[in-house]
Amino acid sequence: MLLKIGSLLLVLLIKIYCIYHFYRNKDRFSGVIGIITALMIGISSAAIGFLLMLATNYQVLITTLVCLVYTMGNGLLVRRLFPPEKGMNDILSGLIGALIGSVLGYSTFISNKPFLVIDIAFIVITYIALMYFDRQLASKSTENRSKKKNQKQASNVSTISLSAILIVIIVVLGLNVNQIKVGVIGQPQTQTASIDEENDMQVATIRVTASGFNPKNTTFQAHKMIKVNFEASIPKGSQIRLKSEDLKLNMNLKNGKNILLMDNPIEGKYQLTIEPTNATGTFTIKK
Asked: Which domain of life is it from (predicted)?
C-alpha cells in the first residue's frame, strides 16, 4: 500500500514542481508554454491513470472519475496561471494520457514492478522533456514576432488535432472493449506442483488478486491427490469469487489461505475464473 500511495504522490509532486518551474520562468517560456504544459499534463495523466487502475484493483469507475477531476483541474490551473492560455489543449492531452494509461493499467498484472517501472519512466521522460525545452529556450535570446502572430492559429490547429486523436482512441477502444483482458501484461505464466511424499499428495500455492492468478497455469499429475493453497490478497470491502464449471467449483475467497483438495484428478485442462474481473487461469493435469 505504501508503494502505491508513494508512486502516486511522486508523480503529483513532480508535476507540481514542473508547473511551478514554468510559472517562475513564464516570460522565458511564453512562446511555448502551451506545448510544454499540455505535454507535461498528458504524461502525468497517463501515469496517474495507470497507477490508479492498479492501486484500486481495477476499479474503472473510481479511476475514471479521479482522472476526469485531475485533467479538468489541470486545465483550469493552466488557464489561471498562464493567460492567455485557455487550458483546452491541456484538458484534451490529459484525457488522452489518462485514457491510454488506464487501459494499459487495466491490462497489467498487479505487482510491485509496474509501480517502480512507471515511476522511473515518468522521472526520465520528464527530465528529458525539461532539458530539451530549457536548451531550446537558452539558444534563443529573443522571440520572433511572426511566431507570436501565428501562435493563436497554431493553438487552434493543435486543439482540433488533439480532439481528433481523442475521438479516434475512444472509437477504437469502444469497438475493441471485449478484447481488453484484465491483468495479462506481466502475469507469471506457469508452475509445476511439488510432491509431498510424506502425505502422498501434490502441493501448489497460487497467489490470487483481482488481476488473476500468479502463476496463470499450474501443472499436476493425474490420479494423485492435489492440495492447492489459493493465497488471496483482497482490499478491504472487496470480495472475489473463484469459479470453475469444469471442476464444479464456486467459492468465496477470503484474505490469506484458501485450501482446495482434489482426489484422483483426471487428465485434462481445467479453466478457473475470478469474479467480478473475469480473470482466468488453468489447471493442467498430465499423465
From this structure: Bacteria
270 with 244: CB under 8 angstroms? yes
How far apart CA 273 and CA 258 sit, in angstroms, is: 15
Q: Specify which residues 253 forms β-bridges with.
A: 240
- Residue-wise pLDDT tens digits, 91-126: 999 999 999 999 999 999 888 899 999 999 999 999
Domain chopping of the chain, boundaries = 2-179, 190-286
Query: What single letter denotes the amino acid at residue 101?
Result: G
Euclidean distance between CA atoms 74 and 88, whole angstroms: 10
184 exposure class (CB count in 10 Å sphere: 0-12, 13-18, 19+): middle
Tell me the pairing of strands 279-286 and 217-221: parallel
1 or 177, which is more confident = 177
Closest CA to 120 of 110, 108, 128: 128
* C-alpha closest to that of 31 among 104, 136, 172: 136
Mean pLDDT of 118-137: 87
Beta carbons of 190 and 229 less than 8 angstroms apart: no
Q: Which residues contact 108 (CB under 8 A, 6 or more apart)?
A: 50, 53, 54, 114, 183, 185, 186, 211
- Which CATH code for domain 190-286? 2.60.40.420
CA atoms within 13 A on the CB side of 104: 16
Distance in angstroms (rounded) separating the CA atoms of residues 42 and 64: 15
Cα distance between the two ends of the chain:
42
Q: Rounded to an integer, what distance in angstroms lies between the CA atom of residue 103 and that of residue 282?
A: 24
